[in-house]
Amino acid sequence: MATNTPYAPSKIYRHHVANLRELELAIGHAARIARAEIASGDPRNSLRSMLRLYSFLVGAWAECRLQKLLHETNGFSEKEREVIGQAKTQLEQWERTVDLGFRKHHQVWKAPLIAKNIGVTHAARREALHAVLSNELRIIIEIRNKLAHGQWIYPFNSNGDAVEPDKHKLINKENLQSLQFKYALVGYLADTVHDLVVSPATFERDFDSHFNKLLQVKINLKTRSYEKYRDALVRRRQKARAAGKKEI
Length: 248
What we know:
The protein is an all-alpha fold.
């Protein structure tokens, strides 16, 4: 007999939801402490450590968000999750998730995901998502992996016999503002992929909105002044102290 009652989420899905919420709480705590250190001039020299922690947590959030997505009730089957899970890296798992989402949406199971088979608009959207994955998300994942191995200042190559200069620069040039932008960026990316997998109609409706926000974050990363951000936090603290209010 047919029923309109929605399927109950699996226990695994609920566990991933709980993990994601805890990570979001931790990210919020790390941001608050980092803002306080910036505003006070970093008297305890703890800001650098908090930025590393924040960066690590954003990478962990991205991994947990993917696992939550893979276990959505209206998303992938167990067999499809196995196919995605067989990818060697987290980045490849994201890429497979995107491609399988488009295949399910268009019922194209073997043919190339090109304009001829999925339409010009969706081919362009697929390319846009893959570009964000291979550029912005790849860096977040790679830095998270270095930090997870304790390489908080000097990231080593896979052989462990030399420092990787590019990643050393990436880790050490980050500031709280840039990390918060990256957190927002991966959030918009995850929302877009979620719609693709779970609700094709929502994907059609909201893709431009999500992706325009993502593109704006990319612009902010390049153009927003950290010095202005830092100075605003300092002024806010000074005003709070002058008014006898609680500090940041």
